Amino acid sequence: MTDLDTPYSLASAQIAQFRRDGFIKLKHVLSPETLVHFGNEITRLTIELNTEQRPLEERSTYNRAFLQVMNLWEQSPLVARFVMGQRLGRLAADLLEVEGVRLYHDQSLYKEPGGGITPAHADQYYWPLASDRTITAWIPLQPVPADMGPLGFYVGSQGVAFGRDLGISDESEAKISENMARHGFVFEAGPFDLGEVSFHLGWTFHKAGANRSDRPRSVMTVIYMDAAMRLVSALNVVQANDRDQWCPGAREGEVIATRKNPVVWHRG
């Protein structure tokens, strides 16, 4: 599993592209063998620890989008090895153009066959963090063809203020999608090959289609933040919940250096 830690060749043009677009998709980041080795454990734990048992038709739009389990790295040494992988951590730091990155939290996203859309949103709505130096690695554990609901992004939307106060919901899907279309933001979505990984900024608006296939879409995400990130006052209830869950003991105005937020990669 050498690809988990060895550097991935990233060109300066790709860093500039990410800075401009707010996201990037990179091919051949992880090998099929690595994804199988760690993916089986990630999927097993997601199904085992998931607490959503209602039929799809009885759930809200948010809960139809996927089953989700956070911080699997605390549940399994094997998953922890994956989440602390140096290749992904270094890519995150290089794309953010920072000296190092800490873990904010990980999150498994399991879109069941027949699972609904993931409404348009920006992740950082949920995070009480002092800057925009946050990034999510979206790592499919199998190929994601168009009918399985691949993640898509509004190109260059990371600077848009409208919609930053909307959590994932029918309202966010309607209002953000309409605003993006009105201002001419291109929505870029397409299949993911096995081993392809996307990275997007916390304020980049994105969404995913429904899973119209007869197979589950199993994805692991790792959310990184600048290693020097500081905690700020929560702007809403969900940010207060995130603070308590993922940054226990962190103090406002100070670097978020808790036991749950280890440095994953740092230069030198």
Structure description:
The structure is a single chain. The protein contains seven helices and eleven strands. With 268 residues, the protein is α+β, with helices and mostly antiparallel strands. 28% of the residues lie in helices and 22% in strands. The model has no long low-confidence stretch (mean pLDDT 96).
Q: Low-confidence parts lasting 5 or more residues at pLDDT below 50?
A: none
What's the alpha carbon Rg, rounded to whole Å? 17 Å
Termini separation comes to: 23 Å
Order of helices and strands: HEHHEHHEEEEHEEEEHE
Number of strands: 11
How is the CATH topology named?
Jelly Rolls
> What percent strand?
15-25%
What would the principal axes of the Cα set say about the shape? globular
Main sheet characteristics: 7 strands, antiparallel
The residue fraction in helices comes out at 25-40%
Assign the CATH architecture. Answer: Sandwich
Average the pLDDT over all residues and give the rounded result.
96
Structural class: alpha+beta
Count of individual domains: 1
The CATH superfamily title: q2cbj1_9rhob like domain
What is the CATH class? Mainly Beta
* Tally of DSSP helical segments: 7
Protein name: Phytanoyl-CoA dioxygenase
GO molecular function: 2-oxoglutarate-dependent dioxygenase activity; iron ion binding
Keywords: Dioxygenase, Oxidoreductase
Pfam families: PhyH (PF05721)
